[in-house]
Design goal:
Elements lengths: L1 E4 L10 E4 L2 H17 L3 H13 L3 H17 L4
């Protein structure tokens, strides 16, 4: 298992996610993002706007995703 925070994934808080794979971690992060959206958390909403803008460029999106996955892969096991 490895642990990353919302902030390490580009988010707005220190909520931690634990997973065996990066894909599992992404799913947990998405659920967290939905919760924060429902709560209209200002910090998370700002990050979501930035990510939506990034997603308009597929190459930039892939580079961002790949960088986060590399950071996850570089982490030591918990």
């Amino acid at each position: 298992m490895k642990t990353m925070s919302c902030k390490q994934l580009g988010g707005a808080c220190e909520q931690s996610f634990q997973a065996k794979t990066f894909e599992e971690l992404v799913e947990q992060s998405k659920l967290h993002a939905m919760e924060m959206f429902m709560q209209q958390d200002e910090g998370h909403l700002e990050v979501m706007q930035n990510i939506q803008a990034l997603m308009k460029d597929p190459e930039a999106t892939k580079a961002w995703y790949d960088a986060k996955e590399q950071a996850f892969n570089a982490l030591a096991e918990d």
